Amino acid sequence: MGATTLLILDIQNGIVDNFDQSVTEPYLQRLVKTIAAARNESINIIHVVTAFRQGYLDVHPLNASSGPITATGKYQEGSADVQIHPAVTRLPTEPIVTKRRVSAFVGTELDLLLRCSATDHLVVAGIATSGAVLSTIRQAQDLDFHITILRDLCLDRDEEVHRVLIDKVFGRKTDVFNAEEWVDRIKGQTSS
Fold it and tell me: Which residues form the Isochorismatase-like domain (predicted)?
C-alpha cells in the first residue's frame, strides 16, 4: 500500500471569511488538531489555494465558476485573500498548489506531487463541499485514488447540500469519517 496525503482545500483568508466566525472558529480548531495528528504520523500534507493572475488573464469570461470573480477584484495572486488562513500553519515541507479552477487537479502539479510521493490514498478536507471538495474528489476517483472525506472538516454555505453530498453522494464511493475518528484510526500507522 502506498502513502496517504491529507489534502487541504481552499483554507485561505478570502474563502474562510465568507463564513460566520461562529462556524469557522471551531472548524479551524478541528482542522489544526487534525493537521497536527497527521504530521505526528508522518502523513503527507498538501495545501491548495485558489488564486488568479493579476488582471485575471487566466479567467475565461464564460466560466460560470470563476468568471463572476473578476468583478470582485478578489483572489488575485499576492493578495491577502489568497493567503492560507493564519490559524493554519504550513510547514516548509508541505507544498502549496495554486489552482485556477474548481478542481485541485485541473492545470496544476497536484497529480505529479501525489505520484512522486507514492500516494494512493487521499484524505480530503476543505471548503466548499459543493465546490473544490466535490470537483477534486470526483477527479481523484477517475485517477484511481482511494479517498477518505473528513465530514466535519468539509464546509459549505448550504448545510443541506453539504449533508446530501456527504451522506448520499460521497459515502457511496469513499470512506467518510469525522476528523476525530480518522485521527484515532491513524494513530500508530504511517499509511492509513
Answer: 4-178
pLDDT digit string, tens, across residues 89-107: 999 999 999 999 999 999 9
- The conformational region for residue 144 under phi > 0 = left, psi -120 to 50 = alpha, else beta, is left
* Whether the Cβ atoms of residue 156 and residue 162 lie closer than 8 Å to each other: yes
Q: Topology of 3-186 in CATH?
A: Rossmann fold (3.40.50)
- The CA distance from 54 to 120, in Å, is 35
**DSSP designation for 168:** I
Q: Is the pTM of this model over 0.90?
A: yes
| 3-9/44-50 β-pairing | parallel
- In sequence order, what DSSP letters do the residues of 42-55 get, joined into one string? T-EEEEEEE-B-GG
Residues 6+ apart with CB under 8 A from 152: 27, 30, 178, 179
DSSP state of 189: -
Strands, E, within 51-118: which ranges? Answer: 96-99
Please tell me the distance from the alpha carbon of residue 120 to that of residue 114, in angstroms, as a whole number: 8
Please give the Cα distance from 186 to 43 (Å, whole number). 9
CB 154 within 8 A of CB 166: yes
The domain segmentation of the chain, as residue ranges, is 3-186
